[in-house]
Each structure stands twice: as structure tokens, then as C-alpha cells.
Amino acid sequence: MRSSGSSRTSTNRRAGAQSDAVPLRRSLRHEAIFVGLIAAFVSVVAFGYCYRNNLLLLYGDAVAHLAIARRILDSTSPGIRQIGSVWLPFPHLLMMPFAARMSWWQSGIAGAIPSMACYVLGVAGLWRLARYWLPPAGAAVAALFFALNPGLLYMQTTAMTEPLFLCQMVWSTLFLVAFLRDVGAGNSTQAGRALVACGLVLLTAVYTRYDGWIFTCLVWLIALRGLWKARAWKSRAGGAFVLFTAMLGAAPVLWFQWNATQYGDWLDFMRGPYSAKAVAIRTTPPGAYHWPGFHKPWVALLYFLKVSELGAAPHLFTDVVLLLALAGAILAILRWRGQSILPLLLFWMPVPFYAYAVSYGWVPIFFPLWFPHSWYNTRYGMEMLPAFALGLGFLAAWLMARAQVRWGRHAQLILLASIVLILVNSAFLIRSTPLVLGEAIANARTRIPFEVAFARALDRLPPHGKILVWTSDHPGAFERAGIPLRRTINETDYYRWIPALRHPAQSAAFVIASDHDAVAQSVAAHPQGLTLIDIVCSTGQPCVKFYRSDIGPSP
Question: Residue ranges per domain, the chain?
Fold first, then answer.
């Protein structure tokens, strides 16, 4: 009789939990929509400022991302093969329909549209995730710190992948928490839906950044643990987990197969001619000193943590933000243990990942305060923003709960002080120039004047006629000149490129050779029928020579 009564009680509790979950979900959905509308307004304001000040295309990688998105539709041999092998394809497929419009490609709007959408979704998702654990006050602290970060507000106006990946991290974690709660409450149908949704988001993350592969593995382990604890293998949640596993297992295998089929090496993205390792070796002079952290994980860890702090707080308070976020995360693990809190640790995944990547993955990080006092890959630190934001949210919620018990009205003062500090922090970061914007400005200082001069020289060419040119180094010149990529014979045109290099004068009306590139080598080997008509040189950049073909197809 006792066991029967206990079973009924357990069943009643689960039914009650399921009935309470429906209005809670609706309430959180409405809150997230409201927060998303506010984020959309902030996003548009930031875009207006950056667009007016010509900041959208400062990053060379942003220009390159847009060029890849454009060439899928606009090239001599358009198609899916244009996605390449090193950078993962999802961001380019997302930008592709917008980059098809010439004016949006030229202005950078094609990259801003998906990034802004991801920023809005990321802020709304972070709010909803925080509300699973925290009261509105604590969630507000987390969402404000994340949404008002000046570096993120700048990056969401560019074609860079950081806003997209942050959105994927937040929403996959959100669906994972929903799965753990539902499967624990016995709602296997809802849990299965949440897990499939989580899998779909992670599928896009796997094809966005390689750190998404590690993030996905950790999510899978936490989902497996939740299913094991709930003993729900034979339920719909168990079936969803099988689908979840199949999707996530197939994604990297397909990428290996793509590299093997198209480039003859299933690890071409790691060891091919355009991989991070190959680029680092080409750009490092023989016998030169390697970057700090090379084969030194602890040094690499310090560099990544410092660049993360500098992107989140002014220099004098960087360590304070890290320590407060750590304290909040520890409090969350200790005091919110029964509320599916384990996924919170996913947001700290970038710490060991980038400690390894800088040490052994040929991915250096430079910033001005530390040797070599330069700028490179500071944007990687942005991946810590959700961890900092949620850690501060948990800490604020704990302080307000303690104050509510002992001092009553002081809890509201803690919330007000937290909001004011976030606003002051953002204002100081803006005034001192956000770290990622500083890197963009520094690294564009020689590239943009060169591409402007390059574009002017392209404008002087007749409006018709094929151009033999290497486009990977400075696609921004063709973007600025508004020259369709299908007018060029370049390194991505797999069937025409090699024959054109063997007979440059016969293959194109114009030939453009940069110092030491493949076209320059071709011209040196086969100069017959080519007449030099223009030269473009700029400080810190290679010289570009323009040739007219006297025997090739006429314009």
C-alpha cells in the first residue's frame, strides 16, 4: 500500500510540475520577446553609428567572409565548392543572400544583417536562460552586462563570426537546460523537442567555428548524464537523444569528407596551404621568436584571460570582473545545485580551449599591454562574455537575496548600484575604444588605403574583359570597385586557373600581379604578349602591377 501511495504521489507531483511549466514557459517567452525588442533598438543605434563612421569593413577577415559569401553566387564557376576548406561554411551561407546585392556587399551591410539578428537573439536567449535560474533582477544584471558590451555592439555590425557563435552558445545551452528540466520532471515529449532543437543549433555551431566542436562534445556529455539520471532511455527523450547523437556525429564527418573529396586531404583545414599553421609559418621570418604562449599552456592561458578581461572591463578593473564572475559561478554551483545548473560551466569552455589553441594550434593572441605590444585575435576573448555576464548575475542575485533577509530595502539599492556600474563600465570602454575596435583600426591602417588605391586603378580599366588575378589577399579592392567576381579568373576557379597561369596573355584581357603571388610568377615565366599599364604601391603592402594583353581576348 505504501509503495502504491508513493507512486501516486510521485505521479501527482510530475503532473503538477508539467502543468506549472506551461504558464512559466509562456511568461519567459513574452519576457524574452520584450528584451529582444530592446536589444533590436540598441543594435540599430550601434549600426547607425558604425555605418556613418565607415567601421563595418575594418576587419580584413570581415571583407574575406563577405567575398566568400559573394563568390558562391558570383564567380566564373559558382556553386557550393566556393565555400573553401579552412573557414567553416555556415556563416558564409547565412550571408550569401545578402551579399548577392552589390551595394550591400560593397558597404558591408550584407554581413551586418545576420550579425545584428544574432546579437538580438543572443541577448534575448541570455535573458531567458538566466530566468531559468534567477529572479528578474539577477537576470537583468546578466543581460545588461552582455548587451551593453561595446566590443559586442561593434562586432554585431560586421561580418565577423563572434556574434553568431555567442548566439549559438546561448541558445544551445538554453535548450539543454530545458531538456534537463523536462526529462527530470518526466515530460519526455517536451524534453525530446528541446533536445532536437539543441541539436539543430549545435549543428550550425559545428559549421561555424572549430571551438564549437568541443562545445558540442560537452553538451552531448551533459545531455547523456541527464538522460542517465532520469532513466528515460525508452521514452521519446531517449529516441531524441539517438537523433541528437547521429546529427552531431555526422557533422564533423561530413566536413572531413568534404576536405578529402575537394582537396585530397581530410585534414586540409588543419594542415593545408591555407590552414592557421601554414599561414603562421609563412608570415614568421626564419629563426624569429614565436609568440608568447607557444608550447607554453600556462602563458597562453594568461594571455587569453587577460584579453577576455580587457574586452569586458577597463584596464584597472579587469581582474575584479574575472574574480567577481568566478565567485558568481561558484555560488551558482553551490546554491543552485538542484536547478540544472551544470550547463552554466559550458560558458567557461573557451578558457581551456584557447589555452590549448594558442599553445599548440598556431593561433597567437597579441594585445598592446603585453609583449609583443601588437594586435591580433583579441576578439577571441569575447567568448567569455556570457560567462562573465551570468557570473555577475548570480552574484548580484545572491547579494540581493541576503540583503532582503537582513536589511529589506537595501536589495533595491544593490540592483541600482549594479546597473549604474554596468553603465559606467560600458561608458569607460567606449571612451577608451573597445579592444576589438582598436585591433580593427590598427590592422586596417595600411590595408584600406592600399585597397582604395587598388580599386581606383581597377576603375580605370575598361568595363568589360576578363581579369586574371589572385583575389584572396585583397578582395576588398574588387568590392570597393564594384567589379563582379565572375569577371575574374582567380584561384577559386578550379578549371580555368591553372591553364590561365600557363598562358596568361591568351587567357584574359588584363592581368594583375602582386609581389610574389602566383600571377606574378606566371608573368615572369610567360611575359609574351603583356604590356605594363599601371602600378599601385602603398606603405606596408605589396606592389600590384596591371598588364594589358595584346594577344588575348579583347574587352
Answer: 23-441, 447-549
